[in-house]
Amino acid sequence: MSTMNLTPKAAALLERWVQAASDIGPALAGEGDLTWTEVRDGYGKQLAAALPAPHGVSFERVELDGVPDEVTDDRALFYIHGGGYVHGAVEAYVGLAGHYAKRLGARAYVPDYRQAPEHPFPTPIDDVFTAYRALLAAGTAPGKIAISGDSAGGAMVITIMRKARDAGLPLPVAGVAISPWADLTHSGPSVRSRAGIDPLCTGGFLDDLARAFLGDALATDPDASPVFAEVRGLAPTLIQMGENEVMLSGAITLAGRLAEQRVRTTLEVWPRMFHVWHMLAGHMAESDEALDNAVSFITREYERAR
Asked: Which one is catalytic: 81, 186, 275, 283?
């Protein structure tokens, strides 16, 4: 890919990721013979095969935990997978969540939330918030919880913290939003200026995902698009975005929104990187460095909460 200096192995893995997603577009268009369950299962299995969990990390489906060899001080990472609220799968994230948990020395909880179009807005968000409440109810100390997610899950990082704040529940020590899909209006200039550059997302594809997810809701609903939300009082937040992403404008707007409302905010924009490049952790230097930055950010907040 001319816009990125990928090693042959990283390029091959990226191509496998693109191929794993090839059934999503036809399903959104109502074409093809696969059900949504089959689309998600195929996507998850293909990515789990291409990007498996690292050595020393085990997964249990019942609890959806990624458990590294050593858990430091009962740390918990609440990780929200992406997929446009439509096509994500927990199995697709054994690699990313595994690398994250291992670096952080934390148990990773990856909620298997219901998705559109069978379960449109706000069901996916409500399911994730229910999972967050359950983590607290199970006795996990708030000072040991960090929340992170990518794409749709990156947007939910902000939304779940808002819902916790409004419900009077403890907030996590930190939030890390990776390539957040923060503005479903797609009105920012990057949708046009980055057209054809990101190998994983286009403006048209995002429009189709938004229609499938939103149902009768507006794209400006703050739970769907946190760029329109009142975010005062949230935990320190790191946003990591690839400069090639069509979603770039939304992430920059979100960072500004957080900063204006006195949330301690860090924005990293990585030149030439594509949507959720962290998925190639263990196979690409930029993926490892970005994940290390996220882990350092969270670790500092764990230490402050001691």
From this structure: 275
Q: Of 151, 190, 249, 287, which one is the catalytic site residue?
A: 151
Domains in the chain, ordered, with CATH? 8-305 (3.40.50.1820)
Is residue 245 part of the annotated active site? The answer reads yes
Distance CA 222, CA 290 (A): 28
Q: Per the residue annotation, which of 245, 278, 286, 287 is the catalytic one?
A: 245
Contacts of 246 (CB under 8 A, 6+ apart): 186, 190, 191, 194, 195, 197, 198, 201, 202, 203, 206
Active site includes 190? Answer: no
Question: pLDDT by residue (tens digit) across 245-281?
Answer: 999 999 999 999 999 999 999 999 999 999 999 999 9
pLDDT at 72 over 90: no
230 is a catalytic site residue: no
pTM higher than 0.70: yes
